[in-house]
Design brief:
By secondary structure, this protein is mainly alpha-helical. It has helices at 28-49, 51-76, 85-120, 127-130, 137-165, 179-203, 209-222, 243-247, 252-264, 272-299. Helix 2 (51-76) packs parallel to helix 5 (137-165) and helix 3 crosses helix 6.
């Protein structure tokens, strides 16, 4: 009998294999946190390898300020406040030491972010490697801000002992540390200044970075309460309007310097109920603008 007499049944096709359940080993949030830690660790590793250069860059300007104003000038009889003798010079030292700590935070915060970004967006194009990290673009910028804030914090710890002891004989800064102010204000100031560095680094083109120091940084320093107290600016007025005391309120450095005076001395200072909220506001403003600019520069 032929095979056609008994046709075989059509073979039933085998069911397709069930798709393998592929689950990521970690969530997107966990991957972003790991990338953030790696970016910060990378920056701190570079800092550790170049720590000597970092220290030299950090202490040079503050050391020159306190050496000239608090050692050389009083020694040759031309110190600020010399008209009232060593008492006046010591009063100026009390005002200057917190100001020196404040500008060290500002300079280190701006340099560690703005200068680095100008290089990474410029000829090195290192930013292209950073944004390939498995995290959102904005988190790359936050990592830069946090690592810069760490460097600004270290600079404050280095500069304060120097500013406190480099004085001429008979000149003494009357320091009284209020720890709750110091511990809360310094980290806030570091984040505020590195956030400002993010704004400047994403605003100025690498070839114009010198303009940043001439038109932004220097006015911040001289109108930021480094050498004087904000409470004393009331003497500068026109027709009873204390215009300079009002004008400097747009300068974030004035709040850091006054906060440092509140934390390190018993000298007159701006009320802390104004210092903290305004610094938090500056942090939010600078960080928001900086993140927007950073994303725009990266995607352009």
């Amino acid at each position: 009998m032929s095979a056609e007499t008994f046709p075989t049944a059509a073979a039933t096709p085998a069911p397709p294999p069930a798709p393998a359940a592929i689950r990521p080993e970690r969530s997107a949030a966990a991957a972003s946190r790991a990338a953030l830690r790696a970016l910060i660790r990378r920056d701190l590793t570079v800092l550790r390898k170049n720590f000597g250069e970092f220290v030299g860059r950090t202490i040079m300007q503050p050391l020159m300020l306190v050496f000239v104003f608090l050692y050389v000038f009083p020694t040759i009889g031309q110190g600020v406040g010399a008209g009232t003798g060593r008492a006046g010079e010591s009063a100026f030292a009390t005002v200057l030491v917190p100001g020196v700590v404040a500008i060290s935070i500002m300079f280190q915060g701006i340099q560690s972010v703005a200068i680095q970004l100008s290089q990474e967006f410029g000829y090195t194009r290192e930013i292209e490697d950073r944004v390939q990290a498995p995290c959102p673009i904005w988190l790359v910028a936050v990592a830069r801000v946090l690592s810069g804030a760490t460097q600004a914090l270290i600079s404050a710890l280095i500069v304060f002992p120097i500013a406190a002891v480099v004085h001429a004989p008979g000149v003494h800064a009357h320091l009284s540390v209020h720890w709750w102010v110091v511990v809360t204000l310094i980290p806030l100031a570091c984040v505020a200044m590195t956030s400002l560095g993010l704004v400047l680094g994403t605003t100025f083109e690498p070839r114009n970075i010198g303009l940043m120091f001439g038109f932004v940084v220097l006015p911040l320093v001289f109108l930021g309460g480094t050498y004087y107290q904000w409470t004393r600016l009331g003497a500068v007025h026109v027709g009873g309007f204390h215009w300079l005391q009002v004008l400097v309120l747009v300068n974030p450095l004035i709040y850091i310097a006054e906060g440092m005076r509140a934390g390190l001395t018993d000298a007159a200072h701006m009320p802390l109920v104004a210092v903290y909220p305004v610094l938090i506001g500056f942090c939010a403003l600078f960080l928001g603008v900086g993140l927007r600019n950073f994303r725009r520069r990266v995607l352009s």
